[in-house]
Amino acid sequence: MNSHLYRLAPLFLSAVLLSGCITVPSTPLPEPWSAEHYYDAARQAQASGDYSDALKQLADLKQRHPESPYARLVAIESSYAHYQSGNYLAAIHSADQQIAEQPDAGSLDYAWYLKGIAHLKLTHQNGQFDANNSRAAYQSFATLAQTFPASQYRNEALQQLQPLRLQLADHELETIHALLQQGNQSGARERAAYLAKNYPDTTAANAALVILHSDNHNKTVSQQHTTWLLQQAPDHYTLQMAGTSDQERLEALIARAPEQLIWYQRPAQGRLWYTLLYGHYGSAAEAEAAIPALKALFAIDEAWVQPFATLQKSLLNADDGH
Predict the structure, then answer these.
(1) What pTM does this model have?
(2) Are the C-beta atoms of residues 179 and 188 closer than 8 Å to each other?
């Protein structure tokens, strides 16, 4: 990557001069305050690794000779100096300046390249994955590859795109699992749809499709169980276990008795809450007698008798928005 960073001054300057936007003065300014003097001093400082002095020379060049062709190179040269000194945010800012202020310059592909590698550095700074910088790096490399097919930086940009894409897809999947753990099925469903759409043909996208299918299945089953619950005799009873917002726990309980466990879902405090029921009993005493076997079957500590009338009223009030 570093082999591409340091570009020769004649290449930059020729692109600026050929653009035709600025006329080169026929008579050079007197040394040592000419624009060329500042530019050469900045380049020499960069070559020796003194990026602080390079930035100073470039700032003086911009201030003293704002109309010079060399001034049009200040932003891109500053971006390079900032990058090499580890100030990646400043490198990105200077690259953005070059892109915004010199859209016809021949160094735009290099500006997008510097943006990409600077964002890439920030992606893994301090050992933490930064999704925002990862997305920005991906966008910078993608723009370079698409807009500048003849660029010498295009192949490296293409090489960076695939690992970044996989990292972003995996990050989205981790976020989805975190939302599910929090009981935020709605948020998880939205992120899963985003992942499947924007990162197709990845392992993470396949997992997202499974989650979406499971969520739709859960909705259907919940509706069927709700209908069954409302059809039961109000003066009969069932056993209720502790509810949960954890879908994985729900699935683990269902696996113990898939044909006998009844459950339904309702929104509660910004998440889905699953209420779990077991059995249909003609009397409270009959339901009470079944509790020990229920505890053993599901390995739980608590269960209690519930009249269908109470559960039905709760469901109907929830549907009415009460």
Answers:
(1) 0.60
(2) yes
